[in-house]
Amino acid sequence: MVRNRTKRAFFILFLLALTTVMYAQRQIKTINDRWSFYLGECQEAQSSCYIDSNWIKVNIPHTWNNDAYQKKNYYQGKGWYRRHLFVPAFWKDKDVYLKIDAASKWADVYVNGEKVKSHPGGYTDFIIDITDKVLYGQDNIIAIDVDNSRKDVTPISADFTFWGGVYRDVWILTTSKEHFAIDTETGSDNIFISTPDVSENRAIVCVKGSVTINSTNKNRLRVINKLYSPGGELLQTNINNINTKASAMSFSCRFKPVMRPLLWSPENPHLYKVETILTNSQGQELDRMTHNTAFRWFSVDGNKGFFLNGKPYKLRGFCRHQDQKPVGVAISDEMNRRDFDMMKDMGANFIRISHYPQDDALLEMCDKKGMLVWEEIPIVNTVPDTPGYADNCEFNLKEMIRQHYNHPSIFSWAYMNEVLLMTMRQYKGKSLTDVIQRTKSLAHRLEMVLEKEDPYRKSAMALHYEDIYNKVGLTDITNILGWNIYSGWYSDSVTDFEKFLSYQHTNHPTHPIIVSEWGAGSDIRLHSLNPHQFDFSSEYQQTYIEHYNPVIEDSAYVCGSSYWNFIDFNVAGRQESMPRTNNKGVTYNNRTPKDVYYYFKSAWRKDIPVLHIASRDWNRRCGIQRDSLPVILPVKIYTNQPEVELFIDNKSLGKKTVKNYNAIFEVPFSSTEPLLYAKAGDVSDAVKIHYTTVPYNINSDNVDNMELAVNVGSNCYFTSSESQLTWVPDKEYTKGSWGYIGGEISGTQTEVNATMETPLYQTQRKGLNGYRFDLPNGEYEVELLFSDIYKNKEQEVYLLNHKEGSSISEDNCFDISINGDIVENRFCPSAFSGKFFAVKRRYIVGTTESKIEINFKANQGVTFLSGIKIRKI
Ligand code: L9D
Ligand code: CA
Q: Is the peptide bond before 155 cis (omega within 30 degrees of 0)?
């Protein structure tokens, strides 16, 4: 009975399917839910992966590398995904495909235990024909074995985390038996739309594709291509008959010229639409694909820069990494679109999709809302001789081009980033010559792929700022040279930026240049009235950016630039002020804009007025109070208006002329919650500041509520994200005040363990004799912060100006006395926990001498101090 009923139900379903589904062409749907995941190898029968309870339930997008937020040596190895897939019986009349948008870095896919595909590459998709692999009307098991440790798949060395997992969508695609061919080799949708000839007067569209027939039906088939205007009007119809007897059932269609086409640009992203329809001889539709296309052309010139649609056009934009805490790279389409919108909001017209192909959701936005694109494959730092590596690079390049070919926003394909950086450090002599030779031959090989696959786009590679690339002939290969320049950050000073550029231009005037990277880090906890290179203050990042941008704008030969990076991104191996984070972003990792976001917005948006009080990053301010007058602190305004007025607590501070999109006001701070209000023409902005003070001269009037915390050895204010306490910059002791006695500034970029307040400990005074506070008599709490950083440590490769201390490998030990009493005898801060470890000690001291003076006397090695805090109790 029951059986019969199901049978009948099936039969009805089947009928329904016949009538409504049969000609309803392809269906595509995600199967991101109901996956089980196991971390580790699953080879031997004894493996714990054979115990079901060792698997966890997950959704895709997924990455297993949450550990990249915690530690340097994040897990690189295998992870298994497994899912049941019920394949309905009526799919027997269909072809069935599995599409995986990204599995990093290598994937082996199994259907019911049989391996159906191996895929190298963590940033491109792949499609598997599983028509003959699945059981119809039954449950099937799909398993994906992913490995993010492969050394034959690029990238193998780079300044970002190689997240493991299936971190983009997984789809099931079904088609009728006659359909447009699916590209199971390189994962594209296999219809290629080009615009080989475009001008203001006329434009040509060509469509290429092929058809698959997996039935005995040898009736005639037809391909109908329809071209629609941006307004949706049908412009042309083109019909191809398919010779179903031929082995390669390909078609190609060339539309008649479109006269006076609406040109595409980031400002006016007019999209035409191509519909490609497959029908049988009765005109019944079997398959249908829709693509956008656009009319635009570009050229590059060593002297005149970049041209879009025949006019000079400055590329203004960002490089973009994709991760966001806590999900890593397992980000949603919405998050991709949000990133696009933010870049567009700043007025960017260009994105360097670095260092690897990214989600279609992003590219879709670039086409629709307008942004020019450079996209690349991740060959970073060096080219190894690992067997298979070069082949996999070539394959990934082909995949990227074919998969993203139909995005008209893309003007450049790129394939190498700073490939001589590690090379130059790791190899010498003959072996260096060999690597360079290998690198060049790979570049030539990839260049040939580009020419063959897509003659309409420009090739590019990004180089680090060394002339070596010219010397070895790597700069003569691509159409565009990207220079990644960090003068004033990792080395030199900011003005070496323009020197380097003009040197390159003068010596190689035919090379079109994009500044493919430039950037400086910033940490929201660090601020300075006197910013220094590499201090990670927001203010230094601002200074750096305000210097570079006008140079790029004013150098006509520079095509434009992509600032590094749109976001603060995760690099498990990076240390610096925020371990695991490269903080050069113009937004924080959670995408909150940094103040400097509004510098870009002010510089790039011409269509709307922009005004921003650049004190969101620095909204907890601390003044060092010298007398009873308000403390004067600078407040910066970013705006594209010519003049701006600033008010504090409704009191005008007058108007200022804006230069380079900013104006700085000297603002008197006195109230604890001052309201800043800025106005320029019709736009205004307001922000409340949290204001506190510490005394310059400690006396009976100010001592009671004082908590004077000093960031010893630093020019920066440091506000703890945990306690919100601000540690003020250090200064030398002067009579009646407080400060250090003797020693020199020193520091490290290496991570300090056991603290969240890393930068406090990374900056210090070395060799100091003492620290003194002149103050009223009474009882005080004194806290001293240490971290022994003075030893040889293997240098982190990317810390180009890694500043280490001396090279004593033993503990450094010293006596500490307070007002003459020894409080520590032969104190060795690293004795128990080792070097680069945060150590804090607190002392309760009474004084009757109107001062507290702490003295340090070395027993072994050097004295040092990272921070000091004093409060009355
Ligand atoms: C390089 C820089 C970047 C790094 C990039 C790389 C940096 N060294 O993240 O991947 O291309 O911030 O150090 O130019
Ligand atoms: Ca310090």
A: yes
